[in-house]
Design a protein that fits this description.
The protein is built from eleven helices and no strands. By secondary structure, the protein is mainly alpha-helical.
Length: 217
């Protein structure tokens, strides 16, 4: 069991280091702009779109999704390494633990990046990438919920919050294992907490809508 714990720590660390490569901040450097000093102050895709435009935002989408996927792959292989016939059956049947651990690390890295003073984004795209790898059907359902909410309200933040809130119930309803439920609850709470300022603006009627000109926070 000690070896299992060590592998989980390594998977979490690998995911964290990958996640710390905050794409919006990297892309911003090419434009000479720190997006954390503009718009909403968030180091994520939506604020990049408002601050720098469509192409930089597209690069952020690709980067944030890619690092979540790579973190899942790294977590899987780190967890799988050294498994043999002597390992308990439950361990072999729950390889998703490695995927979810690496993915969780990437979300934490995105939110609190080691390379950028621990001030990052809200982790929605990276979280979505992890969900697509670990639970693709649930991920596509959440994407549908997000798109419907954004289409009806033009609030990206509201779409993210509602999708996050639904995620744990969706996982439990569709019969996923305990490791999935723990992951779902953790990332849902994290996403909602990271949107606390957005929730306040939504309640006050001052939240930016998709397509609005950038508004300084």
């Amino acid at each position: 069991m000690v070896w299992v714990i060590i592998k989980l720590v390594l998977a979490l660390l690998a995911g964290y280091l990958l996640g710390s490569a905050n794409t919006s901040l990297i892309v911003g450097k090419f434009y000479g702009v720190d997006v954390r000093k503009h718009g909403s102050g968030n180091a994520g895709m939506t604020n990049t779109l408002r601050t720098l435009g469509k192409l930089p935002a597209l690069l952020v989408i690709i980067g944030d999704l890619l690092k979540g996927i790579l973190a899942c792959v790294a977590g899987y292989y780190i967890f799988k390494a050294g498994l043999n016939a002597a390992e308990p059956d439950w361990l072999k049947e729950h390889m998703a633990i490695g995927v979810l651990t690496g993915g969780t690390g990437s979300v934490l890295g995105h939110n609190w990046p080691l390379y950028f003073g621990f001030k990052g984004g809200k982790g929605v795209l990276t979280t979505f990438a992890v969900i697509l790898i670990a639970a693709p059907i649930q991920g596509l359902i959440l994407l549908g919920i997000f798109l419907v909410v954004v289409a009806l309200t033009r609030y990206v933040s509201l779409g993210s919050i509602i999708a996050a809130a639904v995620f744990p119930f969706l996982i439990a309803f569709m019969g996923k294992g305990l490791e999935y439920i723990v992951f779902a609850v953790f990332v849902a709470v994290l996403v909602i907490l990271r949107h606390s300022s957005n929730i306040k603006r939504l309640l006050n009627g001052t939240e930016n809508k998709l397509g609005d000109k950038k508004r300084e926070a």
